[in-house]
Automatic annotation (TrEMBL):
UniProt xrefs under SUPFAM superfamilies: Nucleic acid-binding proteins (SSF50249)
Stored Pfam families: CSD
Organism encoding this protein: Helobdella robusta (Californian leech)
Keyword Methyltransferase: no
Matches recorded under Gene3D superfamilies: Nucleic acid-binding proteins
Name of the protein in question: Cold-shock domain-containing protein
A cellular component term, taken from the record's GO annotations: cytoplasm
Gene Ontology molecular function terms on file: RNA binding
InterPro entries: CSD, CSD_CS, CSP_DNA-bd, NA-bd_OB-fold
Amino acid sequence: MYSVEHCERGVIDKLLTRYGFLHCTERVARLFFHNSEYKGNIDNLAVGDVVEFQESVDSRTGKSVAVMIKKIKNTAS
């Protein structure tokens, strides 16, 4: 289980079959995430996409992870 901290933005850095990594945009950090934490169709998520997420701590490992990941729509014209 996880202990949820706060909401942030990040950029998808790497996507694999069951998990991936993202870089935080507000600080220097690279976080692991499990694909089940993405709130949408994982097939629509790509490297370079901007997302909103919550940082949490995995109670088993004690490491920070990204949870509740949502893709941010590009509103630039």
